[in-house]
Amino acid sequence: MTGRSRAPTLQAVRTRTRSTGAVHPALLALALMMLLALLLVLGTLVGSAGLQWPGSAADAVAQRIAFEIRLPRTLGAVLVGALLGLAGAVAQGLFRNPLADPFLLGSASGAALGVALALAMWGVSPLAVQALARLGVTGAAFAGAMLGVLLTLALSRGVQHTLRLLLAGVIVGVVLGASKDLITLARPDVLQGLQGFTLGHTGFIGWGACALMAAVLLPLLVLAWVLGPLLDGLSLGEPTAQSLGLPLAPLRMALVAALALATGTAVAQAGLIAFVGLAAPHLVRAMVRTTHAALTLLSALAGAVLLAAADIAARTVVAPAEWPVGVMTAVLGGGYLLWRMHRGGLRSSGGTA
After folding, report:
1. For the chain, what is the domain count?
2. What is the reported pTM?
3. CA distance 266 to 328
């Protein structure tokens, strides 16, 4: 099909999915950014020592706690949530399934396997504060996540068929999960360290991790914006997308690469955090109806808000103790999705709510 005949059709797709909801996408983005700014301030103030603003020179200890521990932790939660929200929107658009999440391609099981291997071989803990130990665990988690995705791609023989890719991801996840269980059976001493990773944690995210995640997130946001119109065409179905002349194989490969990189980076820094990538796109669709380009960006903002709020709640619900942030996201995100299902609001990812 020629470019002249294709352009009106793609324009019709964008027009059909343009904002017709109760909130304009720009207003929603502004509201989410204002909420993020509020959460950053609140996250800097909230901790086991209570609410305080360490402004005086005499309060040097409180100032160090706020700006060297609490602020990077809260900013890290924002960046992890943004990566997972972006990955969730990409996954749901790629698989055209509202229940798709960032961990479908075996990245979660691969990351857990990598951490289990690291614990078994090096004896380091995901909760260790030593920089070398943290680097070993986060590197192993990222490598394991990438291994899971590569095995999925090899088993599915590329990205040509979405259903085969999805099934391969499920199989790889089961196999890698079983391999991790075998390691824990052989080395029961790694269970405690692995539990912190599987429940999710943000307590040891520092400025270096924030810089790394920001360096990954920014180009992925640009890529998602560029690929948004192609996702709009893919939402019509593969035969229709092929008839429109869309380059499906390069498109899927770019989307899978973005999904894997975002998920692997987030998992490596914060462990396995459930429901953020699944709930963030649904939260956006509940308020706006827009194209995939705006949906992915708004989902990143919504994921950042969700995880930042969950991180603050994890610190305060049972203060001075803490709950794992993955438990809070499961409660908040899972509860929201159950409410949406009760109302019959879970629909396809083609831009509707």
Report:
1. 1
2. 0.84
3. 17
